[in-house]
Amino acid sequence: MYAHIESTVTAIVCLLTAFVIQRIYEKERKQQNLNTISGIKWFGLAIFSWGIGALVTLILINYAAFSATSKWLVYWSVFISLINSLFILLSLPSIEHQKERNMIVRIVERFSVKEFMMLFCGIFFMIAFVFIATSYNNQEISNSFIWLIDIPISLVVALALLYELNKAFTNRKMKFMYLPCFSLFVLIVIAVSHRIIPHEMVEEFISLSNWSLIGIITSLSFKFIFILLFSILLYSWKFLSEKEQQQSEFALLETERTALHSENEKLKIANESHIDTIQSLTKKLDRKKKKVAKLKEASKIELSDRQKEVLANLGICGAKKSYTEIAEAMHISVDGFQAHVYQIKKILNISGSAGKEQLIAYAIENKLLQFATISCD
Question: Which residues constitute the domain of residue 68?
Answer without folding.
Answer: 2-237
